[in-house]
C-alpha cells in the first residue's frame, strides 16, 4: 500500500529549476533516506510535497488522497534553524504545540495533553528538560524537542529534514531508535540525510536525487557506487576503496 | 487640578488610554516576536496623510472618519512596503524608510494646507503629531476604548493559534491553521491598534507604545502568556500615566509622556528584570566564577 505518490513534481525559484519532474511512490512501513548533494533540492522537495512551498506542476497524493484532508496524519520535523530559539517558551510547551491541531479552537490544553507530551519527551530522553527554556538547549536537544513535537501528533507518515545534522552521538542514537520503533509500528518515515557512511545501517529504502530523481528503491539495490557517482557527479571516489564496490550490509 | 481628574470626560479618556496601552502592549509582543517592530513605526507615520485627506474631504474632525482614513493609508503603506520588498532588490528596512518618509512628508504637507484653507488649526489637527489625549471628547474616547478591547479579545480567544503561528508558521500550516489569514489579520489588528491611538498618542510616538512594553516584558519572563500579560500591564501603565501627566498641564502633548513612562519601565526591566536583566546575568556570572575558582583550588 502506498502512503505517498508523487507524479512529475517540479518547482522553481525565480528562473532556476530546483525540482525537475520527480515521480516516485513510498510504501507503508518503510524508512527512506533522501540523499543528494547540497542544493539538490531535498529540503525543497519536502516543503513542496507538504504544500509549504508552491509547486510548478505535478501531483502529490497522501494515502491516495489530497494533502488538505490528510494533514493530521502527516508529521513534519523541520531543520532546527527554522525557528527562533529565543522564543519565550519551554520544552513541554513546544511539544504540546504538536497537539494544537487536535485540541480544537477555544480549548485549553488539559492534563491528558500534558501526559501525552511527557510521553513523547520520554521517547527522546528529554523529560528532565520539560520546564527548560528552549534558548538554553544544545543543538541535539533542540532536535529531540522537534522530534517529540512530531511524535506527539501520532502521525502515520513522517518527514524529517536533516535530523542528524550537527547533533551529538547520544541524540543520533536516540533519534535512530525512535525511527526504528516508528517503522516497527507500521509508520512510514522519510528522512533527508547527509552522512553517506551511515545510510546502509539506518535506512531500508534510499532515494537518490539531484534536482532529478536518480534512483529510488531498497538500499542494497540503490545505494551503489554507480548511482552515487551519478548523484554526486563523480565526486564520490573514496567509496571505491572503503566499500570495495560491494555493499556493507551484504558483507 | 482635581477638577480635571473628577470630570467624567477625563475619566473616560483615562480609562480608554489604559485600554489602548494594553492592546498596544499585546500587539507589540506579536510584532516583536515577528521581528517587525519597525513596521509599526512605518504604519503609524504613514497614517498621517489618511487623517488629513479624511479631514479635507469631510471638513470636520469626526474621529470615525479620521480613523478610517488613517487605517486605509496605513494599510496601503504596509502593502507598499511588502510589495517593494518582494518585487525589487530593495531590502525591507530600506523600503520602510522610503514609505515612512514619503507618507509622513505628504501628511505634513496636507496638514499645512488644512491649517491654511480650512478650520484645521481650530480643530487641533496638530494634536495628531504628538498626541493630545486631553483634547479628546467622550465619544472619541469610547471609540478608542471599545476598539482596543476588541483587539485584546481577538488575541485572547485565539491565543493558542497565534502562538503556533508566531513560533513556527510552517508547523501551524501543517496542523491546518490558516496561516495566511492569521498573518493578514495580524496586519489588520496592528493597523487598528495604531490608528485608534494616533489622536491620543500621536503618529510619531505611537510605535513606542507598541515596542517598548513588550521589550520590557521579555526581561521578566520566559513564558509567552506572561509576556503578553506583562506587556499589556506595562502598556496600560504607560498609557494611563502619560494621559494623566499631560492632562495636568494645558496643551501638554501626551505622546512624549507615554514614551517617558514606558522608558522608565524599560530601564528598570533592563537592569532588574528577573529572567534576562543585566543584574541577574551578572549575578549568575559571578556565581559561576566563584564555583569555578573553588573547583580549581580543589584540583590543585
From TrEMBL, chain A:
It comes from the Bacteria. GO terms for molecular function: ATP binding; ATP hydrolysis activity. Belongs to the ABC transporter superfamily. InterPro entries: AAA+_ATPase, ABC_transporter-like_ATP-bd, ABC_transporter-like_CS, Metal_Ion_Import_ABC, P-loop_NTPase. The lineage of its organism: Bacteria, Bacillati, Bacillota, Bacilli, Bacillales. Keywords: ATP-binding, Nucleotide-binding, Transport. CDD domains: ABC_Metallic_Cations (cd03235). Residues 1-236 form the ABC transporter domain. This is Manganese ABC transporter ATP-binding protein. Gene3D superfamilies: P-loop containing nucleotide triphosphate hydrolases. Transmembrane segments: none annotated.
UniProtKB/TrEMBL annotation, chain B:
It holds the Pfam family ABC-3. The chain crosses the membrane at residues 12-31, 37-56, 63-84, 96-114, 141-159, 185-212, 224-248, 254-274. It comes from Jeotgalibacillus soli. Coiled coil: none annotated. One of its GO terms (cellular component) is ATP-binding cassette (ABC) transporter complex. Belongs to the ABC-3 integral membrane protein family. Its main location: membrane. Keywords: Cell membrane, Membrane, Transmembrane, Transmembrane helix, Transport. It is a multi-pass membrane protein. It is found in: Cell membrane. This protein is probably a component of a manganese permease, a binding protein-dependent, ATP-driven transport system. GO terms for biological process: cellular response to iron ion; response to zinc ion; transmembrane transport. This is Manganese transport system membrane protein MntC.
Amino acid at each position: 500500500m502506498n502512503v505517498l505518490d508523487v507524479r512529475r513534481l517540479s518547482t522553481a525559484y525565480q528562473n532556476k529549476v530546483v525540482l525537475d519532474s520527480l515521480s516516485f511512490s513510498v510504501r507503508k512501513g518503510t524508512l527512506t533516506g533522501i540523499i543528494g548533494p547540497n542544493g539538490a533540492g531535498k529540503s525543497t522537495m519536502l516543503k513542496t510535497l507538504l504544500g509549504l512551498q508552491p509547486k510548478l506542476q505535478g501531483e502529490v497524493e497522501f494515502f491516495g488522497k489530497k494533502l488538505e484532508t490528510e494533514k493530521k496524519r502527516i508529521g513534519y520535523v523541520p531543520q532546527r534553524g527554522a525557528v527562533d530559539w529565543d522564543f519565550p517558551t519551554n520544552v513541554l510547551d513546544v511539544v504540546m504545540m504538536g497537539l494544537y491541531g487536535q485540541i480544537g479552537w477555544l480549548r485549553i490544553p488539559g492534563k491528558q495533553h500534558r501526559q501525552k507530551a511527557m510521553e513523547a519527551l520520554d521517547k527522546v530522553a528529554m523529560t528532565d528538560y520539560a520546564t527548560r527554556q528552549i534558548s538554553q538547549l544544545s543543538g541535539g536537544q533542540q532536535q529531540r524537542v522537534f522530534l517529540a513535537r512530531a511524535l506527539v501528533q501520532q502521525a502515520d507518515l513522517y518527514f524529517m529534514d536533516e535530523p542528524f545534522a550537527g547533533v551529538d552521538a547520544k541524540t543520533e542514537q536516540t533519534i535512530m531508535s525512535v525511527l526504528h520503533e516508528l517503522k516497527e509500528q507500521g509508520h512510514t518515515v522519510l528522512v533527508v540525510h547527509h552522512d553517506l557512511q551511515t545510510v546502509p545501517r539506518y535506512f531500508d529504502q534510499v532515494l537518490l536525487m539531484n534536482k532529478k530523481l536518480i534512483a529510488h528503491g531498497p538500499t542494497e539495490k540503490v545505494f551503489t557506487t554507480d548511482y552515487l557517482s551519478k548523484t554526486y557527479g563523480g565526486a564520490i571516489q573514496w567509496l571505491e576503496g572503503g566499500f570495495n564496490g560491494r555493499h556493507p550490509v551484504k558483507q | 487640578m482635581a477638577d480635571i481628574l473628577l470630570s467624567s470626560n477625563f475619566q473616560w479618556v483615562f480609562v480608554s488610554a489604559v485600554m489602548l496601552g494594553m492592546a498596544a502592549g499585546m500587539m507589540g509582543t506579536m510584532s516583536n516576536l515577528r521581528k517587525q517592530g519597525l513596521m509599526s513605526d512605518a504604519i503609524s507615520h504613514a497614517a498621517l496623510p489618511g487623517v488629513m485627506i479624511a479631514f479635507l474631504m469631510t471638513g470636520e474632525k469626526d474621529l470615525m472618519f479620521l480613523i478610517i482614513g488613517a487605517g486605509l493609508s496605513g494599510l496601503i503603506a504596509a502593502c507598499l512596503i511588502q510589495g517593494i520588498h518582494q518585487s525589487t532588490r530593495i531590502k525591507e528596512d530600506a523600503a520602510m524608510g522610503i514609505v515612512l518618509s514619503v507618507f509622513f512628508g505628504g501628511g505634513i504637507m496636507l496638514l499645512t494646507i488644512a491649517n491654511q484653507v480650512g478650520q484645521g488649526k481650530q480643530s487641533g489637527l496638530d494634536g495628531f503629531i504628538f498626541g493630545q489625549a486631553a483634547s479628546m471628547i467622550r465619544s472619541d474616547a469610547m471609540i478608542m476604548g471599545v476598539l482596543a478591547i476588541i483587539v485584546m479579545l481577538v488575541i485572547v480567544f485565539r491565543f493558542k493559534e497565534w502562538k503556533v503561528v508566531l513560533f513556527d508558521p510552517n508547523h501551524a500550516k501543517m496542523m491546518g491553521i490558516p496561516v495566511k489569514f492569521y498573518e493578514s489579520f495580524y496586519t489588520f489588528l496592528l493597523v487598528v491598534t495604531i490608528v485608534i491611538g494616533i489622536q491620543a498618542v500621536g503618529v510619531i510616538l505611537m510605535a513606542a507604545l507598541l515596542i517598548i512594553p513588550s521589550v520590557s516584558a521579555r526581561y521578566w519572563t520566559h513564558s509567552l502568556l506572561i509576556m503578553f500579560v506583562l506587556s499589556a500591564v506595562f502598556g496600560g501603565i504607560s498609557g494611563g500615566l502619560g494621559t494623566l501627566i499631560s492632562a495636568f498641564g494645558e496643551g501638554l502633548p501626551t505622546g512624549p509622556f507615554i514614551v517617558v513612562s514606558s522608558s522608565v519601565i524599560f530601564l528598570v526591566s533592563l537592569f532588574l528584570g528577573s529572567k534576562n536583566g543585566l543584574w541577574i546575568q551578572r549575578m549568575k556570572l559571578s556565581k559561576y566564577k566563584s564555583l569555578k575558582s573553588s573547583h580549581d583550588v580543589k584540583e590543585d
